[in-house]
Amino acid sequence: MKKRESLNKVRLSDLEREKLMGEIKAFYLDARGEEIGIIEQMQVLELFEEKMAPIVYNRGLEDAKRWFAQVMDNAESDYYALYKE
């Protein structure tokens, strides 16, 4: 049996990290007129991974839970609509 992986930490692929670091670099250049190096890009990304990613992830779970509850309510209504009088 395969062991279930912990979902405590959001993990990005290398491609996602690279793309986000480019976005961070571009943001600093456009918004602040500052060039930041790769170490600073990594630090900002790690900060967001640690502090913001869990909040966004949990919000997504709550959205999925609300959607699922709505689907189940609709399914229950559809089920009772099948009864004949």
Strand-residue proportion? under 5%
> In terms of structural class, how would the helical and strand content be classed?
mainly alpha
Rg over CA atoms: 21 Å
Mean pLDDT: 89
Number of strands: 0
Largest pleated sheet: none
Number of helices: 3
Walk me through this protein's architecture.
With 85 residues, the chain is mostly helical. 73% of the residues lie in helices and 0% in strands. α1 packs across α2. The protein is elongated, with a radius of gyration of 21 Å.
TL;DR of this structure?
Helix content is 73%, strand content 0%. With 85 residues, it is mainly alpha-helical.
Structural features:
single chain; 85 residues; mainly alpha; 3 helices; 73% helix; elongated
SSE blueprint and pairings:
Layout: H1 14-32, H2 38-51, H3 53-81
Helix pairs in contact: 1-2
